[in-house]
Write a structure and sequence with these properties.
The complex is a heterodimer. By secondary structure, chain A is an all-alpha fold. Chain A has helices at 18-23, 29-50, 53-57, 68-72, 80-101, 107-125, 136-144, 160-188, 197-205, 217-233, 242-263, 268-278, 294-298; strands at residues 27-28, 158-159. Helix content of chain A is 57%, strand content 1%. Chain A has a two-stranded antiparallel ribbon with strand order 1-2. The radius of gyration of chain A is 21 Å and the shape is globular. The two termini of chain A are 28 Å apart. In chain A, 53% of the residues are buried. Chain B is α+β, with helices and mostly antiparallel strands. Chain B folds into 2 domains: 17-54; 62-155, no CATH class. Helix content of chain B is 31%, strand content 26%. Chain B has helices spanning 17-39, 85-88, 92-96, 99-104, 109-119; strands at residues 62-72, 78-81, 128-139, 142-155. A 4-stranded antiparallel β-sheet of chain B has the order 2-1-3-4. In chain B, a hairpin with a 2-residue loop joins strand 3 and strand 4 (142-155). Chain B starts with 16 loop residues before the first helix and ends with a strand. Classes of the chains: A mainly alpha, B alpha+beta. At the A-B interface, helix 3, helix 7, strand 2, helix 8 and helix 9 of A face helix 1, strand 1, helix 2, helix 3 and helix 5 of B.
């Protein structure tokens, strides 16, 4: 990408570098506010229920195996006290940020603190021998949401800052699929598609929905080809608009539901980002008097930016 | 959502050129980190490690590895127990990620037992524990049997 003359694209929808226009294609403030509310409300659920590893690790700190980033940043060795302090600070700030997100107040300060604490929480959770791959997009979301100034829930004002923030999350979501394909080729070799990796997954984590596949192994073999093709094709979703984008997002969400049903692995934060970064969530909120959803459609500038729906995806009937 | 009333167009709130340049530079750095992680680094480089969940190849005829935890009960019998974080502080995948450490220092198994003491204070205290590598044997993608080998064992003094 080039940022050689970003000012040339300063005028929304104006002429300029198409890549810059694509990155900063405006989105309604309401979409950012919806994202903030959902992301900050998700944190208590994640920390207390879905991914409570940090708390569990407080009982096994001797097995700590620090990540490189923990050593580079001189993060303290986790102790039960530190883990509890991070957890409860994070919970308090997340609830406060979610409560204030509709008004757009204090979002930069609260959002930045939440990102720092959630990053530390994640680093602690992943410093015991296993790194999960479901939260890069969520970390990116927490990092970029504070870069958007006041974005109120009922405000449809198009924001370039919001456009960049959501674009970053979209890219992180797609990278989680696309780069996973190359990781498979790197670690499993090109023969990964013909290996028995899904047999292994099902044997280790089978459910009543997947046990039958062990006696019909060609289903799992074929699924590996399907996964590889889906991952390599995933960048397409960045360039779809309207109804096709929604269909692609629901297809990907359906894939995660299927994985959950068959091997009990769910990319919760990733799926949250998938839905919130790609769908026109501002429609969930009644706009401020004098505005309507048509604003979101008008955000889409002509030209390459429009190829991605101006991030007002789904606005047009052509969908 | 009121198609009969002409809606006023909201002017987009633009970002200054410098703000855009900084954001694009950050985007490029992070994207570069993820690409580098994908091709050259590993999990310990999180958040720039590869997305490698289930990325290795399991031979259609070969073994699936699975670490198992056995607890030594107060009556002297071994009982297979779940290798889950709510029970022993870490989960199976985390233990599997540290197998060389457990092999080199079997005393580390004590931390699983002590974590169980703290997490399940109302359950009988284990007199020890052992980690075993279970091999689920495949032939043409079909399960044909199991084998087990010891990894590390610790008993409470």
């Amino acid at each position: 990408m080039s940022a050689s003359n970003p000012a040339s694209a300063a005028a929304p929808g104006g002429r300029g570098n198409p890549v810059v226009r694509w990155f900063f294609s405006p989105v309604p403030a309401a979409r950012v506010a919806v994202f903030r509310i959902a992301a900050y409300l998700f944190i208590p659920i994640d920390v207390l229920l879905l991914h409570a590893l940090g708390s569990d690790h407080a009982s096994a700190t001797a097995l700590y195996k620090p990540l490189v980033v923990a050593e580079l940043l001189h993060l303290p060795r986790p102790t039960p006290v530190l883990i509890e302090a991070v957890k409860w600070s994070l919970l308090a700030l997340a609830v406060a940020a979610a409560a204030l997100a509709a008004s757009g107040r204090w979002q930069r300060v609260l959002g930045t603190a939440i990102f720092v604490l959630y990053f530390e929480w994640t680093v602690i959770a992943f410093s015991f021998g296993k790194v999960d791959h479901d939260r890069i997009a969520f970390l990116v979301a927490l990092a970029v949401l504070p870069t958007v100034a006041a974005a109120r829930l009922r405000d449809r004002t198009p924001l370039e800052a919001g456009g960049w923030a959501l674009r970053c999350v979209q890219i992180a979501v797609v990278a989680t699929y696309f780069l996973a394909a190359f990781a498979k080729i790197r670690f499993g070799g090109i023969e990964w598609v013909n290996s028995a990796t899904l047999v292994r997954a099902v044997m280790r984590r089978h459910t009543i929905f997947s046990e039958w596949t062990l006696s019909v192994p060609w289903v799992l073999h074929l699924s590996q080809w399907g996964i590889m093709i889906m991952e390599l094709a995933s960048p397409v979703v960045l360039f779809l608009r309207g109804r096709r984008r929604i269909q692609a997002v629901l297809l990907l969400a359906g894939f995660h539901v299927m994985v959950f049903a068959t091997i009990t692995i769910m990319f919760w934060p990733h799926v949250l980002c998938l839905l919130l970064a790609f769908l026109p969530t501002e429609r969930l909120v009644r706009p401020r008097p004098g505005e309507d959803a048509a604003d979101a459609v008008r955000l889409a500038p002509a030209g390459p930016g429009a190829l991605v729906g101006g991030q007002g995806a789904g606005g047009g009937p052509a969908g | 959502m009121t198609p009969d009333a002409p809606a006023p167009a909201s002017p987009a709130r633009a970002l200054p050129g410098r703000a855009k340049a900084v954001r694009l530079a950050l985007t490029a750095v992070c994207a570069g980190g993820l690409v580098a992680g994908t091709f050259w680094w590993d999990d310990h480089m999180f958040p720039f490690g590869p997305f490698r969940m289930y990325s290795t190849s399991t031979p259609a005829t070969g073994n699936i590895h699975m670490v198992q935890l056995d607890a030594l009960m107060p009556d002297g019998t071994w009982r297979r127990v779940p290798l889950d974080a709510p029970l022993v502080g870490v989960n199976r995948a985390e233990v599997e990620g540290q197998i060389p450490r457990f092999k080199a220092n079997p005393g580390l198994v004590s931390h699983l037992v002590l974590a169980h003491d703290r997490l399940r204070p109302h359950e009988p205290r284990w007199a020890g524990a052992r980690l075993r590598m279970q091999y689920l044997k495949l032939r043409d993608r079909r399960f044909v049997g199991t084998e087990e080998h010891p990894i590390a064992e610790w008993r409470r003094p």
